[in-house]
Structures are given as C-alpha cells and as structure tokens.
Amino acid sequence: MDALILRFDAPLMSFGGVMVDQHGPTDRFPGLAMLTGLLANALGYRHGEFDRLQALQGRIQYAARWDVEPEHIVDYHTVDLGQEKMRHPGWTTHGKIEHRAGGPGAKFGTHQRYRHYWANGVMTLAIALDEEGNPNLNELETALHQPARPLFLGRKSCLPAAPVLLARVQAANVLEALCGYPAHPRMAEGDETLAACWPIDIPGGIHPHIVSRYDQREWRNQIHAGRRNQHEGRIERPAS
Fold it and tell me: Is residue 181 part of a domain?
C-alpha cells in the first residue's frame, strides 16, 4: 500500500478529547475527526459538505509516534460576559445577527476556560486511505503540498512550524510505513523506543495495549459519536 508521511511540528498542538464542563483536554494522539478536518481543509472541503466529510473520515487509516515528547500545558483564560461590548448582538459570517441564548449565566458574569495543549513536541504520522474513491491518495498528496486553506493542528491557534507533508512511501501497512521513516533530528539520542498508536487490526509494537477512542464525528449533526479501539504502546527507534 501507499502511505503519506506527515509531520506535526508546532509550538502548540491539541488533539481534542471529551470535554468536561469548562475543561478542553487534549488526547495523547490525534483522532479521526481531527485528521479529517485537517485533510478536508487542505482539499478545500466546506464545513457543510457532510457526506464528503463522513466518507473521508471512514477511509482514513493512520499510525502516529512522538519523535520529540511534548510538554503538557494548560491555557487559562476568562471572558467577562457582563461587559458592554458583550451585551450587544454580533454579526455572523453569513450576514445574520447572532444573539447570546441561555439563562443569566450564559449572558452575564465571568466565564473561565481551561484549554489543554501539547507544547514543543514533534509527531510523525503515516496516513493511508481505504478503498477506492474520492479523494484518492494522489489528490490528497497534491492538496497537502498546496493546501486550499491554512492548516492547523487541532485548534486554529496551533499553526505548524514547517510543511506538514514529508514523503510518500510504500509499505505493507501504516505501522510499517511509520516504523521505516527516519525520526526528527531533535529526537534525543538516548531514546530507543517511541510512544505510538496504530490500528487495532495491525499486530506489532512493544507492549501494545488496547485504548478506546471517542474521536469520530457525525458531521451532519455536528456531534461526536461512536467508539473505536486502537493499539497504543511503543515502537523501536527508526534508523536514521
């Protein structure tokens, strides 16, 4: 199979997660919905093209590893909804007035937010598409070379520090493609194994364990739904 090698190298990354109240956590590895959004952005898909987004999400296979382990940080910020400027309706990009709905707590007072990020890490991924269809891997490769829109790694504030696409390779599966691609030069010399994730139906890795992910989006209804399992563990340091 053919696979694309991507590299996430950015000051900040965030891979979503199950939100709890005002906390927006980040998972250890990117999820299917996040990767779908990234690839769809490169391809120029629009947010309302639900069927195309759903079909793309259902075809993605990937494996990922941390070449440079990140630092976990939490961004704390507040918004004072009682300010005069926050009391007036705003205009949406569709030219319609948007009013703030909900009870008094949604309209006034100070709201606190905690947003979780990975800082200063470097991740390498191998991505392939199941079955024939649109887009094909050639179209995806072209789009990642020249994205239709700016790309971001989870949140819009998480801009990559370098081009995301590195190479196209051939391998038996995405895990083999990932293991065969050299690590980032910043990788510590003493690291003999790397934290990684890969599809549940591919054996391999060191001390793999099964992790349940809630990372699939029902694009038409704009909700996350469904559960899938993947392997997480460690893989050997790739040759330079």
Answer: yes
Task: Kindly state the tokens that stand for 103.
Answer: 């009870």
Q: Are 151 and 165 in contact (CB under 8 A)?
A: no
With beta carbons less than 8 A apart as the criterion, state whether 186 and 122 touch: yes
Residue 53, domain extent: 2-70+119-236
CATH of residue 62's domain is 3.30.70.2660
Q: Output the CA torsion sign for 130, 134, 135, 137.
A: positive
Q: Is residue 97 part of a domain?
A: no
Distance CA 45, CA 63 (A): 24
The number of folded domains in the chain is 1
Sort 2 into a burial class: Cβ within 10 Å, 0-12 / 13-18 / 19+: middle
Task: Walk along the chain (240 residues) and give the pLDDT tens digit of each residue.
Answer: 999 999 999 999 999 877 677 777 889 999 999 999 999 999 999 989 999 999 999 999 999 999 999 999 998 878 776 666 555 555 555 555 555 555 555 556 677 888 899 999 999 999 999 988 899 999 999 999 999 999 999 988 999 999 999 999 999 999 999 999 999 988 877 778 999 999 999 999 999 999 999 999 999 988 888 889 999 999 998 876
Q: Are 184 and 195 in contact (CB under 8 A)?
A: no
- Cα 172 to Cα 128, 131, 229: the distances in Å are 11, 15, 21
Coil, strand or helix at 16: coil
pTM over 0.70: yes
Q: What tokens does 91 get? A: 């205009």
> In this structure, what token pair is assigned to residue 116?
């979780």
* Token duo for residue 81: 């909804």
Q: Is residue 155 within 8 Å of 11, Cβ to Cβ? A: no
